[in-house]
Specification:
single chain; 385 residues; alpha/beta; Rossmann fold; six-stranded mixed sheet; 14 strands; disordered N terminus; TAT_signal; ABC-Purine-Binding; Nucleoside-binding protein; signal
Length: 385
């Protein structure tokens, strides 16, 4: 209704009411004038514009892992902040010029906060952010920041280490394996951490790695898992985004872990545990800061301590001694008394990386491009160096 018409109508009603009161008073009814009609309601405060937030995913939401967990985080903040925000997403966006197109389209639709959730989006985030200074960008697993670009990640290597402890207690062949995506420090760090966890139970354990060079390719992941099993591996970890490794383990009588999401329901016989990421704490922080005008740039790297990663749904047949080892390591990560990368640690050529008692700092951890002792082969791109 037109505000002026509403005002005129309200005035007319008040006039009629006051006239009725006056007549009643003359008739000696004795009623108080102020009780005869309610006071006019105060004008409503203007509603604030919603914060529009876009999410760009590298794989389908149905991957059960990486993207699925990001979308759970999106749903959680939408529920928490209600009509103060409006979220949307685009899934299966390649790490190519398509990423730039999608982000520009998101900004064109009014999104003022954009989450780009894969490492390969990095250069496209930087390019778009340089043109759109009024938009805040959050880039998952990247390392390049700007005035309107923050980077964030989860310490997935902590979850990999906890899984490694279970693997060390469950392998019968003393040979574990990893199906790996792309050879960037994040992935290499996870591979090594998984093996270090296994070797914390049995130092004689060896490991094989097969690269698929994609984040999400179920056929390639299944082929890689089959190759590992054929090579004597009986327990596998993955740094890929589909259910294929776990399902292949189920079909072949091997054991494996869920990665990023809870995958226990998809291969219950093979499943040993899932290293689950929870993005909700970080996403809540970013939204709260943005709504309050306090968005912060920089780099944020959260782990077990912040509730961002944990090993869940450990299988019933895992010995209690191994579960206790996991619990002890988890507690140490929470209170800071334990660090995964604590020396002595050597690479697989015998070179000392960390001396006894020495802890790897963030610079060390983010630059890992080697395999620790016990892993076969070399990291792609480092051969001959």
């Amino acid at each position: 209704m037109n505000p002026m018409r509403l005002l005129n109508k309200r005035s007319l009603l008040q006039h009629v009411a006051l006239s009725a009161i006056a007549l009643a008073a003359l008739a000696g009814c004795g009623k108080k004038e102020e009780a005869a009609a309610p006071a006019a309601a105060p004008a409503a405060a203007p509603a604030q514009d919603k914060l529009k937030i876009g999410f760009m995913y590298v794989s389908p939401i149905g991957d059960g892992g990486w993207t699925y967990q990001h979308d759970l985080g999106r749903k959680a903040i939408q529920e928490k902040y209600g009509d103060r925000i409006e979220t949307s997403f685009v899934e299966s966006v390649p790490e190519s010029a398509d990423a730039e197109r999608v982000m520009r389209d998101m900004a064109g639709q009014g999104n003022k906060l954009i989450f780009a959730t894969s490492f390969g989006y990095q250069e496209f985030v930087q390019k778009v952010a340089a043109d759109l200074k009024d938009v805040k960008f959050e880039h998952a697993t990247g390392y390049k920041q700007a005035d309107n670009v923050a980077t964030y990640d989860t310490k997935t290597f902590e979850g990999a280490y906890l899984a490694g402890i279970v693997a060390g207690g469950m392998t019968k062949t003393k040979m574990v394996g990893v199906v790996a995506s792309v050879p960037i420090p994040e992935v290499v760090r996870n591979i090594n951490s998984f093996v270090l966890g296994a070797q914390s139970v049995d130092p004689s354990i060896k490991a094989k790695v097969v690269w698929v060079n994609e984040w999400f390719s179920p056929p390639k992941e299944a082929e890689a898992a089959t190759s590992l099993i054929n090579g004597g591996v009986d327990v596998m970890y993955q740094n890929t985004n589909s259910l294929a490794v776990l399902k292949t383990a189920e079909e072949r009588g091997a054991r494996a872990f869920g990665k990023d999401g809870d995958m226990s329901a998809f291969a219950p016989k093979a499943h040993l545990g899932s290293a689950v990421i929870d993005w909700t704490p970080y996403y809540s922080k970013v939204v709260e800061d943005t709504l309050g005008g306090n968005w912060q740039g920089g780099n944020f790297w959260w782990g077990v301590k912040e509730g961002a990663i944990d090993l869940l749904k450990i299988a019933d047949d895992v010995p209690q001694e191994i579960k206790d080892r996991v619990a002890k390591a988890r507690d140490g990560l929470k209170d800071g008394s334990f660090a995964v990368w604590t020396g002595p640690i050597q690479d697989n050529t015998g070179k000392e990386l960390l001396a006894a008692g020495q802890k790897g700092d963030d610079k060390f951890l983010t630059g890992i491009n080697f395999f620790v002792n016990g892993i076969e082969g070399r990291v792609p791109g480092t051969e001959g160096k």
